[in-house]
Specification:
The protein has strands spanning 3-7, 15-18, 34-41, 49-52, 54-57, 62-65, 76-85, 91-94, 100-105. The protein is mainly β and 108 residues long.
């Protein structure tokens, strides 16, 4: 699981991940139709982000998403999931257990 740190209102750096199976092998995304990123602020009832992620290296399982300033407007802890759609009825969520995290630190 990865942890990202941003200041409130910042758009950079992009969040990125290498998607891996529970045994640590990299997920080959060459056959994936899409990858979505889902982001929710800890304690919130609804998703903040449910959007297409960029597949940066399909064979290497590398994906990314660039947050905009409205998505980091509130400081706090955010939980991230990456959802791979294989183009059939199969979806798989990464990480398989737990979440990636974004800590948005309050601006001065």
């Amino acid at each position: 699981m990865a942890t990202y740190y941003l200041k409130q209102g910042n758009q950079a750096p992009s969040i990125s991940a290498t998607l891996k199976q529970p045994d640590g092998t990299v997920e080959d995304l060459s056959g994936a139709a899409t990858v979505h990123v889902k982001v929710k602020r800890l304690g919130a009832a609804t998703l903040l982000v449910d959007a297409l992620a960029t597949i940066d290296n399909a064979a290497g399982g590398e994906v990314s998403y660039k947050l905009d300033e409205t998505e980091t407007a509130l400081w706090g802890l955010y939980l991230i999931e990456w959802v791979v759609d294989q183009g059939t009825v199969t979806e798989e969520t990464y990480p398989n257990c737990g979440y990636d995290d974004i800590y948005v630190e309050r601006e001065l």
